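Working notes for the structural subgroup meeting. M.R. asked for a predicted model of this chain before we commit to crystallization trials. I am recording the input and output together here so anyone reviewing the notebook later can reproduce the run.

Input as submitted:
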Amino acid sequence: MLGCEILGSEGGEMMTVIQVAMLGKLTAPAMADAIFMHPLLAEGLNTLFAMFDA
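Returned structure, recorded in token form:
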């Protein structure tokens, strides 16, 4: 992951998750398998990263 832009009311929440993934050099499959808190907007990132499963 090289970067990310998010525009929305809960963008800061999602950017924090992306920042942790970037700092930890996590792969898309690792993020797809991660457990996200509920109810948060960031839990939708599981679905996003599952789309990049190679």
